[in-house]
Amino acid sequence: MGGTPTDIKLIDENGLRVDGRRPDELRPLKIEAGVLKRADGSAYVEWGHNKVLAAVYGPRECHPRHMQNPSRALVQCHYNMAAFSVDDRKRPGPDRRSHEISKIISEALTHVVFTEYFPRASVDVYIEVLQANAGTRCAGLTAASVALADAGIPMRDLVASCAAGKAADTIILDLGKEEDNFGQADIPVGYVPRTEEIVLLQMDGDLTMDEFTKGINMAVNACKKVYDVQRDALMRRYAARQVDAVVDLAAPSDDTKEGA
Q: From edge to edge, which strands make up the β-sheet containing 74-81?
């Protein structure tokens, strides 16, 4: 968060933001489940100009063995931004920010996965940011949650995520790149709709208590909308699997072909 350049007006005289959105409006969101064939579960998210891919492998034996928990599985998240995901080419490999985001997403997902069903195992979640435009941790958590469900991992519910923040002295939803860089505050939130729990909450910047409360409420309401898109993606994936199963049953077997 920093000062705003004089040539960028984050909120115009009509109350609209840099990209034409209202303060409480989400960027366009698209989610697709089951995009990777070799992963146990996967999801692809396009959120504004963000493009994020998540893959899940497991449950499988946890390595190294000294990390195994005899009573529950370990949910391990690996968040990475591709070198080409930002305008200024990023140095390849994990950095401090990637480690931090990996940790908080792991903790959020551990809260909803029934880890006690898989002692000594590991559920490995890989999040790759292909294109970044602010809000990648929220997009990554949203994608990872769908990928876990696609893998058939037992969960209490999906985790939906969205951020609120402050720019030009206005509380806004789902910050874009300019708002993230030059705004006054950013509050990423991870929310579990079924239990109404917040499993991820961070804040960067300065807010009054009233502004913080308004931002949290705005983010939670947006998470409910994100949750609907997550569920729709999984329903489409389930319907596609049902169609594939019917096609496989209807296809003649090799023995039938030889008999003909």
A: 29-33, 41-47, 50-61, 121-131, 74-81
CA 69/CA 58 separation, integer angstroms: 15
pTM: 0.89
Contact 140, 147 (CB under 8 A): no
CA-closest candidate to residue 92, choices 83, 84, 100, 101: 83
Sort strands 50-61 and 121-131 into parallel, antiparallel or unpaired: antiparallel
| Tens of pLDDT, residue by residue, the chain (260 residues) | 555 555 678 999 888 999 999 999 999 999 999 999 999 999 999 999 999 999 999 999 998 888 999 999 999 999 999 988 887 777 777 789 999 999 999 999 999 999 999 999 999 999 999 999 999 999 999 999 999 999 999 999 999 999 999 999 999 999 999 999 999 999 999 999 999 999 999 999 999 999 999 999 999 999 999 999 999 999 999 998 887 766 666 666 655 555 54
Output the furthest CA–CA distance in the chain (Å, rounded).
79
Domain ranges of the chain: 29-242
Task: Please check whether residue 175 is in contact with residue 134, taking contact to mean a CB–CB distance below 8 angstroms.
Answer: yes
The CATH architecture that domain 29-242 belongs to is 2-Layer Sandwich (3.30)
